[in-house]
Specification:
By secondary structure, this protein is mostly helical. The protein has helices at residues 2-8, 14-26, 37-40, 44-67, 76-85, 91-95, 124-136, 155-167, and strands at residues 86-90, 100-102, 104-106, 112-114, 145-150. It has 8 helices and 5 strands; from the N terminus they run αααααβαβββαβα. It is elongated and about 60 Å long. It is found in: Cell membrane.
């Protein structure tokens, strides 16, 4: 039920929800190689989500360390969120990418503004086309730097969490 709420709040995509549902039905009880306490009582899907969440947090912290120096002059909360979730990239690289969503929005006059999130319903192709058009109009240069966020599903992190749960379990008995 919690995962369905995440899906309805656009915090998780449909494929992620489906994967967790299938995982819960197919692997309600798995005996890990090392620590199997919570898996024995049927909490395997929660262990997977725990490990997936930890891997997402680790990725965010690594991004924070890498990007914080590029956010000087912004309010502290914006600096933290942008540094954890964003990546700086040249516009020409962005228009030739996939699965990236701009956090730097550019209007038709060439004015830039930072947003801190995007909707899972957005189409990255439309954004690339818009920025390509802005480059052709001369409002953006291919060398301009913008902030983008990776629009990857949570699925790779769920997969990593699943592998860790099979190998490690959770060291609580």
């Amino acid at each position: 039920m919690i995962f369905f709420a995440f899906y309805k709040l656009s915090m998780m995509g449909g494929a992620d929800l489906f994967a967790l549902l299938i995982l819960g039905l197919a692997n309600a009880r798995v005996q890990p190689l090392l620590f199997g306490g919570l898996s024995e009582v049927g909490l395997e899907p929660l262990v997977v989500v725990l490990y997936a969440s930890v891997s997402i947090v680790i990725t965010g912290v690594l991004n924070l360390i890498r990007n914080l120096r590029h956010t000087k002059g912004l309010p502290f909360s914006v600096r933290l969120l942008l540094s954890m979730t964003g990546k700086r990239i040249k516009v020409r690289d962005f228009v030739n990418s996939k699965f990236l969503f701009p956090l730097t929005e550019v209007d038709s006059q060439g004015e830039k503004r930072i947003r801190l999130s995007f909707s899972i319903d957005e189409d990255d192709r439309e954004w690339r086309d818009k920025y390509r058009e802005l480059m052709m109009e001369g409002k953006l240069s291919g060398e301009d730097i913008i902030w983008v966020a990776w629009g990857v599903p949570v699925l790779p992190f769920i997969f990593l969490g699943y592998l860790l749960s099979i190998i490690i379990g959770i060291p609580i008995s």
